[in-house]
Amino acid sequence: MRNLLFALCLLPLASYGQKSAIGWQTFSIGAPALQILLPGEPLPQNANLPEAVQSYIKKYEAFYYQDGKGLVVTLMHVVYSVDVMSDVKGAIDGTNGQWERTGSKVAVLSTTNNKINGKNAIQQRGKLINGGQENDYMDIVIGEGAKLWQVIVMVPSKDTVLQTTMQKIIDSISIK
Questions:
Q1: Backbone phi, then psi, for 10, in 5-degree steps?
Q2: Are strands 43-45 and 57-66 parallel, antiparallel or unpaired?
Q3: Residues 6+ positions from 6 with CB-CB distance below 8 Å
Q4: 3-class DSSP state for residue 175?
Q5: Alpha carbons 90 and 141: distance in angstroms, whole number
Q6: What is the chain's Cα-based Rg?
Q7: Spatial separation of the C-alpha atoms in residues 43 and 26, rounded to whole Å
Q8: Is 113 helix (H, G, I), strand (E, B) or coil?
Q9: Spatial distance between the Cα atoms of 29 and 61, rounded to a whole number of angstroms
Q10: In the predicted model, what is the mean pLDDT of residues 11-23?
């Protein structure tokens, strides 16, 4: 089951098309809605889930935003079938494992358990190195019963302007 979580967390990272930025706006995903402030409109991502995975999923939606300067935001919401509970730690570990399997190096700087609007959450800050390029990332996973939300924000490590943008995005996350 953890492999299922791992695969789902990375499906949105595979696409790169993006509309131009239209200014900061609140974006919602899931029900109850995860709300997040983004500097442009994210694009929906289609997932071709394997048949073996489809039977465990009632609903899956994912969105992707990139600004062309190095900021990348991935948003995902999944509702599992009644017999599957969300696993926030499994989702975080799965994302890291998937990155490592693609040849990237992951350096986890901190992992904290917390609550976002009363829901269990885990937040991880780290560095992702791929092809000599170093990025900072924040990965936040929120779970409640069979529902799971994931937000991954990544920026170039040496870009202080985008570091500030990343923190603004992270600080805006809420569940309504």
A1: -105, -10
A2: antiparallel
A3: 90, 91, 93, 94, 95, 97, 98
A4: strand
A5: 10
A6: 15
A7: 14
A8: strand
A9: 8
A10: 48
Q: pLDDT: is 21 or 170 the higher one? A: 170
How many percent of the chain have pLDDT more than 90? Answer: 74
Q: Which residue has the tokens 């170039």?
A: 156
Can you tell me whether residue 146 is helix, strand or coil?
coil
The residue to which tokens 């489809």 are assigned: 54
Q: Which tokens sit at 16?
A: 């790169």
Tokens of residue 139, six digits: 């990965």
Question: What span, in angstroms and rounded, lies between the C-alpha atoms of 96 and 100?
Answer: 6
Structure tokens at 92: 């975080």
Q: What is the pLDDT of residues 138-153, one digit of tens each?
A: 999 999 999 999 999 9
What would the pLDDT profile of 90-100 be if each residue is shown by its tens digit?
999 999 999 99
What per-residue string of b and e applies to 148-160 under the rule 16 or more CB within 10 Å gives b?
bbbbbbbbbbebe
Tokens, residue 145: 């019963």
